[in-house]
Amino acid sequence: QTRNPGEQEFHQAVKEIFDSLVPVFAKHPKYMNNGILERISEPERIITFRVPWVDDFGKVRVNRGFRVQFSSAIGPYKGGIRFHPSVNASIIKFLGFEQIFKNALTGQPIGGGKGGSDFDPKGKSDGEVMRFTQSFMTELCKYIGPDTDVPAGDIGVGAREIGYMFGQYKRIRGGFEAGVLTGKGLGYGGSLARTEATGYGVVYFVEEMLKDQGESMKGRTVVVSGSGNVSIYAMEKAMQLGASVVACSDSNGYIYDKNGVNLETVKRLKEVERKRISDYVKEHPQAEYREGCSGIWEIPCDVALPCATQNEIDANSARILVKNGVRAIGEGANMPSTLEAIEVFLQSGVLFGPAKAANAGGVSVSALEMAQNSMRLAWTFEEVDAKLHEIMINIYRTSMKAAAEYGHPGNLVVGANIAGFIKVADAMMVQGLV
Ligand code: NDP
């Protein structure tokens, strides 16, 4: 804490991992030596930069850009770019730190990184988003490349922003390095099923947790927070598996449609028209809209999928979910549950799929996009989806195995942290003091 003052989210992420590693040190003291913990929690490089741009009224605006290149122990830095007014060094560092272990868990050769800006895309015109994004990439392009650091999307960064970033990178660097970004459009090197990957992956993961108990998603009532990329495709897959999704949200409030959310409407409102979730009730008057975000966790459900943002479930919301009989939690967002909320879930015996494992589907398909770009091939949707499904099952099994091996059977938080850590720590040890 003295080394990184005031970086609350970063401290939280590091604490969660380090607490889980106690049984590893007890069994294998070698992981305590060589300064592995000190090294792994210090980014290899942090880049902070000025992003000046001109708004539609000719006024110069200035935002701050970040790229944290956290670990290249097992592959090039890989992790999304977030555009949201809350972005600061602590948030990007927590996301980059989590990404190291998540990426290791996928079984793909990718290191950990993350980036972003405190730019708020909400209410900005297409032209403003383009000018900002080009200015952001004008600086970022000096530090990334297909074998160095490969950014992707995250909150506030979707296909439109990736397109603008790719265009600017190409213009400055020349050539056509498709593998420099993932989440690209299908017409210029993107992978089928990347848009769906994180949301689908979360539900595949939850289905696997349930299957192990002889249960399934079929007939379950599901609540999903957010209505962005992860949320929409988590809803879609849950519905495909026979569940009923009754609620979703945005940063202003949530809708409750007890007969089942109409996904086509949500997709159109959020993906095409860029409207608010409150507009849903204008078309579906039987549904209710309520202001505020945490109220969504008061809706009784079997499966809760927090897919919006960090710390959206606190201990109180966790207790309400448990009291209302929730059976499984799948974290689609990064660190959506506070440490206290995780404790409530683990104590209560609900099935808990932590973000690092449950939301790794997006980055896994990003790695598949890199592979396709390298081979100059494009796999079909079915091929990519089948690989994604297999990767999610493997992540579940690897995490369960590590949890059992280190004395915490069934605890996927501990299992995912340990499995990810050991892979990265082993690579660091054989590479000498880097
Ligand atoms: P989007 O920008 O597409 O959607 C984010 C959603 O969450 C929106 O509905 C947004 O509402 C809501 N939201 C954002 N910030 C807040 C907040 N402070 N309080 C309440 N709601 C909020 O982002 P993604 O779907 O891509 O990302 C969602 C989460 O999933 C993030 O934690 C991200 O890091 C994580 N993730 C994403 C991956 C991906 O492949 N996209 C991969 C792995 C993890 P509003 O429209 O009002 O802003």
TrEMBL record:
Key word ATP-binding present: no
Pfam families linked to this entry: ELFV_dehydrog (PF00208), ELFV_dehydrog_N (PF02812)
InterPro entries, per database record: Aminoacid_DH-like_N_sf, Glu/Leu/Phe/Val/Trp_DH, Glu/Leu/Phe/Val/Trp_DH_C, Glu/Leu/Phe/Val/Trp_DH_dimer, Glu_DH, Glu_Leu_Phe_Val_DH, NAD(P)-bd_dom_sf, NAD_bind_Glu_DH
Gene Ontology MF terms: glutamate dehydrogenase (NADP+) activity; nucleotide binding
UniProt: NAD(+) binding residues: T198, N229
GO cellular component: cytosol
Site positions per UniProt: Important for catalysis: D154
Binding site for substrate: K78, Q99, K102, G153, S366
Active site as annotated: K114
GO BP terms: glutamate biosynthetic process
Name the record gives this protein: Glutamate dehydrogenase
